[in-house]
C-alpha cells in the first residue's frame, strides 16, 4: 500500500495544514478586499466597475488552476493506482466548477456596465465557458458510473483528455474571436493594470489559493467518509 | 457612506459580484463540512452496530 | 495420425482487423443499424432551420456553413453512443478483446467502421442540403473536403466518450455532454474553412488547422479509448 | 475423414499462489492457490458473489490481480494466455442480425485470421443439434439455442485452455451430455478446462470452493480495505 495513501495519514496531514491555510486565507482575502474596495483607484474609463476585476480575474485563474490539479491527480491515479488521488479529482472538481461559474457571472456583471450586454463572445470568456462544460462532463461521469473505482478511473481518463484539449480549445476560440472581432471590444483585463490595482489582484489570488486548500480538505474528508460508508455497506451486503 | 455604496452608479453590479462570490465560497465549504461530519456519524454508527453484532 | 504438438498458427490479425471493419460497416447499414438513422436525423434537423429562421435565401446562405457543420457534428454524436455498447451488451466485445486483434485493433476497427458507415455518408450528403440552405456554390467543394478532414476527429473523440460510458445505461446524453466541448476546435476550423471559401478567401489555412486537430485526435482519441475500454472490461 | 487427433503440449501449467483480488474497495477472494496441468479440469464452486466469474476473467487477463502470483507457463517460460484460451460467458457473443453461419465465420476469422472450414462448422452444429439453424439469423433463436451456439466455438477454434462460465445454463439433458463428451475428449487431448457452475457436469475433475477464500468474516477485524 502506498506510504501516504491511507485516509488516516491524509487526515493527520490535513489537520496540521488546515489552521495555516485558514489563517492565510482570512488575512489575504481581508486585506485584498480592503485594497480592492477602498484603497485602489477607479478606472478613468470604467469608473468603479473596474473593481469587479478583482473578483473576475482570480476566479478565472482558479478555474484553470483547479483543472490542472485534477489532471495531475488523475495522472497519479491512473499510473500509480493511488486510491486517494482517485478521489482527489472528484473532491476538487466542484471547487473548480464554482470558480469557473463565478468567473462567468462576474464577467457578465462587469460586461453589462461596460458594453451594455451581459454576455459578449470575447475570446477569454468563451474559453472559460467551454471549460465550465468540461467540468460538468467530468462531474456527470463520476455520478453516472456505479462502481466507485471505475468511476474514478473513467473520470481520470476524461480529465487527461480534457487537459490535452484545453490549449487547442483556447487557441481555436482565440483564433475564432479574431475572425469575428467586432470593431472596438475593450479587452477584459482593462487597457493596462495600474500598479495600485495589482496589489488587490494578487492578494485575492493568493487568498483564493488558500481558500482552495481549505475547501479541498473538507471536500476530501467528505469523499473519504463517503467511500468508507459505501465500503461498509458493500460488506454488509456481501456479509450475506 | 451612501456615496461608497453607490460605487459611482455601478453599485448594483459591484456588490452583486462581491456578494455572489462570497456566498458561493462560504456555502461550498460549509456544506461540504456539514455533509462530511454527517457521513462520519453514519459510519461510526454502523461500526458500533457491527461491533455489537460481531 | 497423432500430431505431437499443435503447430503454432501464425494468427494474422490484419485479416481479422478488416473482417471486423467489414462486419461493423455491414451491421451499421443492416436493419436497426446506426447509419440510416443518422442520415435521417441529418436531413430532418437541417431542414428545420428554414422553418426556424425563415426562408429568405440571404439569411440561409449566411448561416448555411454553420448549420451544416453543427448538425453533421450532432448526427455524429448520436450515432456514437452504441459504438461499443452494442457489442458490450451481447458479449461479443469480450471475444474481440481476447482475440489477437486486441484492444487497440478493436478501437481502430470500430472508429474506422464508424467513420466509413456514418460520417462519410454525411459528407457526401452535405452538398445536397447545401442547396436547400442556399449555400453559395463556391462553398460546396470545401464543405465536403472540410467534412472529410474534420469528421475523423469527431469519430475519434466520440469513441472516447463511447468507451467511457459503455457500461452506463442510457449513456447517450452523458456522452454528448462529455464529447461536445471537445468538438469545439473541429467545429470552428471546419466552419471557418467553408466561410472562407464562400467569401472567396483561401480556405487552406483553415483546412490545415482542421487536419492538425484530427491528427491530434488520433493520438489522444485512440489512447484514451483503449484505456477506457480496458477499464470497462474489468 | 478421420479428424487429425490434435494433442496439446503436456507441460502447460496454470499456477496460482496466494492470489488475491480486490475490486471496488472490497476483497473478492484472498490468498488462493491452485495448480492445473495439462489434461485436468477445475470446477469452481461457491455462492453467488464469491468471485467465480471474477476469477475466470482474471485468468483470461481482463481483471488485474491485486496480490499474489498467477502464471501460465509451458516448459518453464510464460505463455501468452490470450492466444491459448477460449472463454464463454453468460452472454453469448452473437450478433442477432447475422446468421449463425456468419457469426461462426466471423468468430473464426477474428480468432485465427483464417476462414471457416464448412465441414468443421457442420460437425460442430450437429453436435449441439443446431445443423438446421445454420442459416437463420440468431435473433430468432431461443436463449437455449443461443447458448448452444456459443458453446460451438470450442469446436471451431482449437485452443488448449477453456474457460466456461455457467456452461450448463439452458441445456437439456442430451445437450448436457454432448457438452460432457466434448469436454472429456478435450481433456484426453491434454486440454485444460476451468468452469464455474452450480449444477455438476459428469466430467471428473478437481473442485475448488471459492467460499474458502472469501475475506474473513466481518467478526474478526481483518476487513482489509484501504478505506477502513
Blueprint (SSEs and pairs):
The complex is a heterotetramer of chains A (240), B (54), C (234) and D (228).
Chain B: H1 2-6, H2 11-53
Chain C: E1 2-3, H1 13-29, H2 34-53, H3 57-78, H4 85-90, H5 92-98, H6 102-132, H7 139-164, H8 172-179, H9 184-198, H10 204-233
Chain D: E1 5-6, E2 12-23, E3 26-37, E4 41-45, H1 52-59, E5 67-74, E6 77-78, E7 85-88, H2 100-112, H3 118-127, H4 143-151, H5 153-156, E8 161-165, H6 173-188, E9 192-196, E10 206-209
Parallel strand pairs in D: 4-9, 4-10, 7-8, 8-9
Antiparallel strand pairs in D: 2-3, 2-5, 5-6
Account of the 3D structure:
The complex is a heterotetramer of chains A (240), B (54), C (234) and D (228). Chain A is an all-alpha fold and 240 residues long. Chain A has one domain. Chain A contains six helices and no strands. In chain A, helix 2 crosses helix 4, helix 2 packs parallel to helix 6 and helix 3 packs across helix 6. Chain A is globular and about 70 Å long. The two termini of chain A are 28 Å apart. Chain B is mainly α and 54 residues long. Chain B contains two helices and no strands. The longest helix of chain B is centred in the middle third of the chain and has 43 residues. Chain B is rod-shaped, with a radius of gyration of 22 Å. Chain B starts with a helix and ends with a helix. Chain C is mainly alpha-helical and 234 residues long. Chain C has one domain. Helices cover 78% and strands 1% of the residues of chain C. The longest helix of chain C has 31 residues. The termini of chain C are far apart. The N terminus of chain C is likely disordered. In chain D, the strands form two sheets. Chain D has a five-stranded parallel β-sheet with strand order 7-8-9-4-10, with helices on both faces. A four-stranded antiparallel β-sheet of chain D has the order 3-2-5-6, covered by helices on one side. Chains in contact: A-B, A-C, A-D, C-D. Chains C and D meet through strand 1, helix 1 and helix 5 of C and strand 1 and helix 2 of D.
Amino acid at each position: 500500500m502506498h506510504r501516504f495513501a491511507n485516509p488516516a495519514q491524509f487526515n493527520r496531514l490535513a489537520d496540521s495544514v488546515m489552521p495555516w491555510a485558514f489563517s492565510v486565507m482570512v488575512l489575504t482575502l481581508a486585506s485584498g478586499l480592503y485594497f480592492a474596495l477602498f484603497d485602489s483607484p477607479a478606472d478613468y474609463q470604467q469608473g468603479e466597475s473596474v473593481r469587479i476585476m478583482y473578483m473576475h480575474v482570480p476566479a478565472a485563474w482558479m478555474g484553470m488552476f483547479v483543472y490542472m490539479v485534477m489532471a495531475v491527480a488523475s495522472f497519479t491515479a491512473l499510473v500509480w493506482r493511488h486510491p486517494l488521488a482517485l478521489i482527489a479529482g472528484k473532491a476538487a472538481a466542484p471547487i473548480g466548477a464554482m470558480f469557473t461559474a463565478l468567473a462567468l457571472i462576474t464577467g457578465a456583471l462587469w460586461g453589462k456596465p461596460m458594453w451594455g450586454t451581459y454576455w459578449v463572445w470575447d475570446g477569454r470568456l468563451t474559453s472559460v465557458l467551454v471549460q465550465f462544460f468540461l467540468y460538468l462532463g467530468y462531474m456527470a461521469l463520476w455520478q453516472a458510473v456505479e462502481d466507485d473505482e471505475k468511476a474514478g478511473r473513467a473520470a481520470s481518463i476524461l480529465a487527461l483528455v480534457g487537459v490535452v484539449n484545453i490549449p487547442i480549445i483556447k487557441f481555436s476560440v482565440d483564433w475564432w474571436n479574431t475572425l469575428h472581432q467586432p470593431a472596438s471590444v475593450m479587452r477584459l483585463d482593462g487597457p493596462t493594470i495600474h500598479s495600485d490595482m495589482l496589489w488587490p489582484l494578487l492578494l485575492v489570488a493568493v487568498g483564493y489559493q488558500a481558500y482552495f486548500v481549505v475547501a479541498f480538505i473538507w471536500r476530501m474528508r467528505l469523499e473519504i467518509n463517503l467511500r468508507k460508508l459505501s465500503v461498509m455497506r458493500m460488506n454488509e451486503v456481501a456479509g450475506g | 457612506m451612501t456615496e461608497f455604496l453607490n460605487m459611482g452608479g455601478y453599485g448594483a453590479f459591484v456588490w452583486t459580484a462581491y456578494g455572489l462570490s462570497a456566498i458561493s465560497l462560504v456555502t461550498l465549504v460549509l456544506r461540504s463540512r456539514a455533509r462530511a461530519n454527517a457521513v462520519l456519524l453514519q459510519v461510526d454508527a454502523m461500526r458500533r452496530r457491527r461491533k455489537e453484532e460481531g | 495420425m497423432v500430431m505431437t504438438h499443435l503447430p503454432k498458427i501464425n494468427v494474422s490479425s490484419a485479416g481479422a482487423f478488416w473482417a471486423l471493419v467489414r462486419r461493423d460497416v455491414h451491421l451499421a447499414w443492416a436493419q436497426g443499424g446506426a447509419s440510416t438513422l443518422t442520415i435521417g436525423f441529418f436531413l430532418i434537423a437541417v431542414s428545420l432551420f428554414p422553418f426556424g429562421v425563415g426562408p429568405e435565401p440571404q439569411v440561409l446562405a449566411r448561416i448555411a456553413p454553420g448549420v451544416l457543420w453543427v448538425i453533421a457534428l450532432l448526427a455524429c454524436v448520436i450515432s456514437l453512443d452504441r459504438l461499443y455498447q452494442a457489442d458490450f451488451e451481447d458479449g461479443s466485445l469480450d471475444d474481440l478483446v481476447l482475440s489477437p486483434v486486441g484492444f487497440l485493433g478493436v478501437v481502430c476497427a470500430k472508429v474506422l467502421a464508424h467513420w466509413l458507415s456514418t460520417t462519410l455518408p454525411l459528407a457526401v450528403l452535405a452538398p445536397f442540403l447545401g442547396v436547400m440552405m442556399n449555400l453559395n456554390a463556391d462553398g460546396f467543394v470545401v464543405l465536403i473536403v472540410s467534412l472529410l478532414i474534420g469528421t475523423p476527429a469527431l469519430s475519434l473523440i466520440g469513441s472516447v466518450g463511447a468507451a467511457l460510458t459503455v457500461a452506463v445505461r442510457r449513456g447517450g446524453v452523458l456522452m454528448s455532454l462529455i464529447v461536445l466541448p471537445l468538438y469545439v476546435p473541429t467545429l470552428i476550423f471546419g466552419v471557418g474553412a467553408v466561410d472562407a471559401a464562400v467569401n472567396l478567401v483561401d480556405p487552406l489555412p483553415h483546412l490545415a488547422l482542421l487536419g492538425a486537430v484530427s491528427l491530434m485526435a488520433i493520438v489522444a482519441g485512440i489512447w484514451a479509448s483503449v484505456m477506457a475500454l480496458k477499464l470497462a472490461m474489468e | 475423414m478421420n479428424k487429425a487427433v490434435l494433442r496439446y503440449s503436456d507441460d502447460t501449467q496454470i499456477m496460482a499462489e496466494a492470489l488475491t483480488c480486490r475490486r471496488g474497495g472490497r476483497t473478492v477472494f484472498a490468498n488462493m492457490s491452485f495448480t492445473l496441468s495439462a489434461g485436468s479440469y477445475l470446477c469452481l464452486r461457491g455462492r453467488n458473489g464469491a468471485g467465480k466469474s471474477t476469477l475466470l476473467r482474471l485468468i483470461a487477463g481482463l481483471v488485474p490481480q491485486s496480490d499474489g502470483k498467477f502464471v501460465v507457463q509451458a516448459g518453464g517460460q510464460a505463455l501468452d494466455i490470450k492466444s491459448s484460451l477460449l472463454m464463454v460467458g453468460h452472454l453469448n457473443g452473437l450478433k442477432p442480425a447475422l446468421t449463425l453461419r456468419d457469426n461462426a465465420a466471423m468468430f473464426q476469422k477474428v480468432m485465427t485470421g483464417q476462414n471457416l472450414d464448412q465441414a468443421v462448422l457442420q460437425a460442430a452444429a450437429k453436435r449441439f443439434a443446431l445443423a438446421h439453424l445454420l442459416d437463420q439469423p440468431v435473433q430468432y433463436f431461443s436463449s437455449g439455442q443461443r447458448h448452444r451456439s456459443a458453446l460451438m466455438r470450442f469446436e471451431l477454434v482449437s485452443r488448449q485452455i477453456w474457460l466456461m462460465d455457467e456452461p450448463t445454463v439452458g441445456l437439456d439433458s442430451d445437450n448436457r451430455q454432448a457438452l460432457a463428451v466434448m469436454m472429456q475428449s478435450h481433456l484426453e487431448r491434454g486440454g485444460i478446462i476451468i468452469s464455474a457452475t452450480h449444477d455438476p457436469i459428469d466430467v471428473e475433475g478437481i473442485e475448488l470452493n471459492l467460499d474458502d477464500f472469501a475475506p474473513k468474516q466481518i467478526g474478526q477485524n481483518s476487513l482489509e480495505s484501504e478505506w477502513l
